[in-house]
Amino acid sequence: MKCGIVGLPNVGKSTLFNCLSNAKAQSANYPFCTIEPNLGTVSVPDPRLNKLEELVKPERVQPAVVEIVDIAGLVKGASKGEGLGNQFLANIRECEAIIHVLRCFENGNIVHVEGSVDPLRDKEIIDIELQLKDLETVGKAVDKAKKFIKSGKKEDILTYETLLALQKFLEDGRNAREFETNDLTLPIINEVHLLTKKPILYVCNVDEKSIKNGNEWIPKIEEMAAKEGAEVVVLAAQIEADINELETYEERQMFLEELGLEEPGVNRLIRKAYALLKLQTYFTAGVKEVRAWTIQKGWTAPQAAGVIHTDFEKGFIRAEVIKFDDFVNYGSEAKVKEAGKMGVEGKEYIVQDGDIMHFRFNV
């Protein structure tokens, strides 16, 4: 599951990606690895992991991770292959969610590709390119669906009518994620894998003086995002880069306090990206290792066990589950058991975010 960082050239994408790629977790320096030049695996900052480390005192701690892709800057005409258009659009297609960076700062030394700062116009430029590509995709799907309506089958007619309505919607300059669906039409839309259907998070890249209270652009972007059902993160990529230069946790804390911030903006961004991908975390906690495991929301206990090893899923017997708050309140697994607070769950159990789990299996 990957998030792609998109935006026009010179809006701060690469600075932000580099900050993410070197993000020092609040209490430790967890590793970041570059799989390809533009793909990074980033640790998800999670205070619960720090608390478990404090209580269990393990030999090592392993955080959850999320993959972030730095996608080449897009220009007008990308849908027709201009610039790195084809590569850009192919890279977005491979991502499950989008982080859209908008430039919300003035700086005469950093040229804006459009000649002036206007994040709403910039957003529209990228939207139009993605919509044009989606129109091409939907056009082909409509032509294909039209051939099947002669059958008279209800599902074939519904497919054709849904795609036709979606085509009109996109022609009106709207994004597919705003198109209303129901249980019958959603699978039809999902089948065509549209770029503007992907969940999106808007990042307002501001200057230092706007980091605490924002600037004139922020309310306008928040209003636009609310209409799309999207969220907004405000940060200053240059400040994040400065934070990354500091060696110790104490230095970073002092710097943040001077700015009136509780934590680096990239921490908030990573957590939002994780949620955007509909991911959640469960923990295993032992003296050898305290670890955060990443699963999809709604997964069952056997599916969650399979993330550790496929044998755990195949031979699943039961899961012993401790709620995070209970573990913290009682201070150890043994005391939770004594208090009768450990749950024993079967194959149907839906794992909850923050569950501490131990699997029993037999292969």
Automatic annotation (TrEMBL):
Residues 1-255 form the OBG-type G domain. InterPro entries: ATPase_YchF/OLA1, Beta-grasp_dom_sf, G_OBG, GTP-bd, P-loop_NTPase, TGS, TGS-like, TGS-like_dom_sf. ATP binds at N10, V11, G12, K13, S14, T15. GO terms for cellular component: cytoplasm. CDD domains: TGS_YchF_OLA1, YchF. Its cofactor is Mg(2+). Keywords: ATP-binding, Magnesium, Metal-binding, Nucleotide-binding. Residues 278-361 form the TGS domain. One of its GO terms (molecular function) is GTP binding. Belongs to the TRAFAC class OBG-HflX-like GTPase superfamily. OBG GTPase family. YchF/OLA1 subfamily. ATPase that binds to both the 70S ribosome and the 50S ribosomal subunit in a nucleotide-independent manner. This is Ribosome-binding ATPase YchF. It comes from Bergeyella zoohelcum ATCC 43767.
